[in-house]
Amino acid sequence: MNEVPTFVTHLECSLTGERYEADRVHNLSRAGKPLLVRYDLEALGRAVDKETLARRAPEFWRYREFLPIRRSENVVRLGEVMTPLIDLPRIAGRLSAREILVKDEGRLPTGSFKARGLALAVSMAKELGITRMAMPTNGNAGAALAAYCSRAGIETFVFCPDDTPPINVSEIALQGAETWLANGLIDDCGRVVGGGVEQMGWFDTSTLKEPYRIEGKKTMGLELAEQLGWQLPDVIFYPTGGGTGLIGMWKAFDELAAIGWIGDERPRMVAVQAAGCAPIVRAFEAGEEFAERWEGATTYAAGIRVPAAVGDFLILRAVRDSDGFAIAVDDTAIAEALAEMARVEGLLLCPEGAATYAAYKQALADGRVAPDERAVLFNCATGLKYPLPEAGRRLDLGRPVNYAALGAA
User: Fold this and answer.
1) How much is the pTM?
2) What is the pLDDT of residues 193-211, one digit of tens each?
3) 196-200 long-range contacts, Cβ below 8 Å, gap at least 24?
4) Among 405, 390, 378, 264, CA closest to 321
């Protein structure tokens, strides 16, 4: 008997629609594309209502009917809180904007939204009997994998580009993963992981190469809808590397509509990339269905430095179907946005989160977003996990304090 109510019927190739059996270990479909988890939504809608949901603990496991875990002992927890929506009244006033909200994912375990996807991926790996997992990472995903796998008793191997932020590398290693630095980008590290599946016996947990990280990231959309009283915002700015969260939220909105919890209105989905690595933006502007690999990728926002995304066509579909757009911002604009947000609102974003604010300002200026639209910006990690500028001036306590000079530049 299932201990956790679940309504999974099958898995489905996101490109061809081919069906795959649930409760089996899967990577990509035979077409080489991500698999999506499908549910009996009619039965799901009968099993839970909004009032029941509201009485549950404020964690993303409150959405258990929407998730694939079948047995409660396989749920791997590290304290997955609902993340806050933070209003930006001072910045909104400066920009003459109606409402700007930041969904601050840095409050999750391991300090980033990667905890959502990896909590589900690792829980399902435990349920399916997987004992060794591996992934490429630019930092935060590897940290989440290491933490949840240690919690679950699963062995981990993590491969990082050699310029991954040192705090991320230390975090990954300290939380139990065999941690390697490679002289390449994240997709180069991905080839190492894929090439070692047979010899090393690990499960390839690369972005979208297993079906369940989407389900974890989907909880961002479920949570956002609930926090806004089941009224979705006008526009969502999402930092897009692999794009799992954007894809997951779009899936969540479809499922909520199917059970009648929201209407047909959808937010415009905006994929935010760095100018030095913008394959989705280039494909969107060219009207392409798939995105070519971005050569020479470079940006200090490491989490969105993904030259090629397995789910490129799913990102582009969500953006186009929502009447959204893809936008690139340069590193200077990202750094300025990060500093402005910290100085004006007291909110320390990560560089990828700051990219969404830079993109919002750019879109507001060029008319792609209107001032009266309610906008949600996703901050995907705490800014404390990234290098910060040196600061502070010296005060010699061996001499009388010149208080008049303390405020001088």
Assistant:
1) 0.94
2) 999 999 999 999 998 999 9
3) 196/134, 196/157, 200/132, 200/134, 200/157
4) 264
